[in-house]
Every structure is written in structure tokens, then in C-alpha cells.
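Shipment paperwork, digital attachment
Item: protein structure file
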Amino acid sequence: MRDGTLDCFLVNPKNVASQAPRTQKVEMATSPSDLVLQKNHASQPSQQCKRPNAPASEEAQKHKASRESKTCCRGNPHTNAPKAKDRVQTFLRAFEALAKPPLFHGKPIQGRRLVCFGPTLWGRDVSRKIDELPTAFRKWCTEHGFVNYNSVTASVYTLATDHLPWRTIDASILEDPEVMIISFALRKEHRTKKLADVEFHWKNTKGGSHDSGLCEMRHESTLRFNARKHAKRSCRHSIRKALYPRIDVEMRRVRKS
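Attachment content:
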């Protein structure tokens, strides 16, 4: 996403139902609806009652068992095949289990739960070493070329009241000004849904009031922006409400102290 004055790029995934262009211009903000929590109720397999048969001979029972085994394998070749692991769901579960509300003056902050890896602005209550990143997430980052970051924050939004208040990233602590935010649907059934709108508010160079706009986030949408340029333009961003449960992973390269 780019509007000529505010450098901000949004790359949407290709597997969504309504494909959005690779770059989107900031549009006027709208109010998203409340968080929708849904549960999957898997249908139980029906059981059929069978009438008991008369005892058969040992040879007949062996022949029947062999025939049923061949039929099963021929009709469903994947019966005994191991299920493929969902790497994304694996590290999302890990982030969700580790995250908790950060403390501010001894009191937990409401609106989201966090877990941070590497140098961060948050305290020890939510911070861990960068080596403690889930293995599945490390592999996912390697596959997608996200390898130049030493600070990662996972923000978990699961409640209807969860939100991100207005914030501006402190660019002075960054070794590289680029910041990347990736959204993930916490539940598989929401991967084709719009998860949230990130609202931006920045100073108008022509004078007058500030300008505002928003970015639509979906599963694996990647939002990149230059924190230094945003600081010069007094640009800040927030998320008023989430549409579906999700985890936002923010990555950056922080100066080593």
C-alpha cells in the first residue's frame, strides 16, 4: 500500500476468496464489526448395528479378513498414510500458549496478550531469548526469506474487546528502519476471512488536519513500513477491533545494547 507520501506496503496472500491487489492505496477508515468466535463441531461417524452371524470356520475367517484388508487399502490408499503437519498452526499454538498480558506499573495491560523474543521494549514478564522462538516459526521464516530480524513480538487477539491502541514505533532503537507485521488467523476456518483493519493517522504535508487510512489484514498478509519515515510524519497506527481471532507477528532489527 502506498499513497505517494506515506511509504507503506501491504502484500495479501494469494489463496483468499476475494483476491486483493498486491499493493493497496490507503482508504478512509471504517469501523469493523465485533469479534466473531466460532467453533467447529465435527460430526460423529454413524454406527450401524449388525446382526450376529453364525460362527464360521477358521479358514473362512482368514479369507474374509484378507479380502476386507485388500478392499480397504484399494478403496482408500491414504488410510495408513501419516497426516501432513500444519506448520503454521503449530507455531500459532505455541505463541498462544506463551503469550500473556504485559505489566505496566505492576498492572496487566488490557487489549492483547504478548510474547516477545530478543531485544524488545517490554519487560521480563513477556520477554524471552531469540533462541526460544518456536522451531516451526523459524522454518517458516526461512522458507519465506524473513531472516534478517533479531526481535519478534507475537500479539494474540482472542476476545471481542482486544485491540491495539494508537502507537508509534520508536525508530531510535532500530538498526534497520523497516518493520514487518504479519497476520495469522488463529483458527483454520478463518483463513479466508478478513481478520482486521489497521488504521493509520499521519500529518498532512500541505497543512491542515491529519490524514487517515486503513490496511485490510488477512491470513498471512504482510505489512511493511519504514519506522523512521513514519516518525518524521508523526504517523501512528492502531487496531480498534478484530473481526476474527488472530495473531500478529511483528519483526524488526533492533540495535544491540
